[in-house]
Amino acid sequence: DTINSILEKSHFYSQNIHNQEKLPTNLNNKIIANLFFENSTRTRYSFEVAAKRLGAGVLNFNEENSSLTKGESLYDTLKTFESLGVDIAIIRHSDDRFINGLRDQFKFSVINAGAGKFEHPSQSLLDLFTIKEEFSTFDNLIVTICGDIKSSRVAKSNVTALGKLGVKVLLTGPEDLLPKSEEIPSHCRIVTLDEAVEISDVVMLLRIQHERHETFELSTTDYNEQYGLNDKRVKMLKKDAIIMHPGPVNRDVEIKSHLVEHSQSRIFKQMENGVYSRMAILDWIYS
Ligand code: CP
Fold it and tell me: Which of 81, 120, 130, 192 would you label with 109, given CA atoms 20 to 30 Å apart?
């Protein structure tokens, strides 16, 4: 129910902005802090745009210029933002469990903007919104997630959310980067990418997260030939299938560069939808 109400709100904000209607200023007088302890472009700035569109003031924390460099603890940093009167803290951290540990410790609401290799719920909500806008329903859809699934918080959040919506998920990629068979939920199946592209409605590609691997042996060309989207595989797609990628994209690795803006690609549409979905998430906190 929560997912569906956020998707409906995302649609409302998408329509509102496209029709240049006056936006509700539900977050007037609220202060939002973007507290990113790991790099980001899309999530951080789309939350900022979303918050500003809803009338909030936004603080953008920069770890390198902060008093963390003088030895201040993370707890005291967060306590400082609480003391300043921040209403919502949007937090990204490389530790899988850091955000869960914050529950009930501070007066502000916390939004998870990416937790280690564990969860990226706002990305999943914008992905679901992109799929719903395309197909109007989740019934009978097949979604393939391809690539570095083991390291991917996007994959984990999407596998969970798609399962709740009754969607079948195909997982594919290098064997070393796939979850162990006992970790795979019943609505998911491991297949080859060639099998997947022929029957999927959505092909979601993931970045190889080199920063989370000690070694990864395949060259760019070999990776694309074996596990990436290229001219051969794009011709195998169903006519109304869509290509997705949460970004940032390693062009010519998981997808050939010239296919990033292919007519079936929704990669930049996902980024646009990130604003509508994050407006819906901010709004949901006060609903
Ligand atoms: N998709 C995503 O989380 O991108 P950023 O790391 O740029 O926020």
Answer: 130
**Nearest ligand 1 atom, CA 247:** 1
Alpha carbon of 123 to ligand 1 centroid (Å): 8
Among protein residues, the one whose CA lies closest to atom 4 of ligand 1: 42
* Residue 270 in tokens: 């996902």
d(CA 110, CA 99): 8
Nearest CA to ligand 1 atom 6: 40
Q: Report how far residue 246's alpha carbon sits from residue 250's, in angstroms, rounded to the nearest whole number.
A: 11
Residue-wise pLDDT for 60-111, tens only, equals 999 999 999 999 999 999 999 999 999 999 999 999 999 988 878 999 999 9
Ligand 1 atom at minimum distance from 246 CA: 1
Q: What is the mean pLDDT of the chain?
A: 95
pLDDT average, residue stretch 197-205: 98
**Local confidence band at 279 (pLDDT 50, 70, 90 cut-offs):** very high
Q: Is 166 left (phi over 0), alpha (psi -120 to 50) or beta?
A: left
Measured from CB, residues less than 6 Å from any atom of ligand 1 are: 40-44, 114, 123, 246-248
- What global pTM score does this model have? 0.96
Query: Can you tell me the mean pLDDT for 204-211?
Result: 86
Q: Which two tokens stand for residue 194?
A: 């060639």
Q: The tokens 């949007």 sit on which residue? A: 90
Structure-token match 């008093």, residue found: 67
Half-sphere exposure of 197 (CA within 13 A, CB side): 20
For residue 274, the ligand 1 atom closest to its alpha carbon is 1
Angle (CA) 199-202-204 rounded to 5° is 120
- Give, as one character, the DSSP assignment of residue 55: T
Tell how far the Cα of 41 is from the centroid of ligand 1, in angstroms: 6
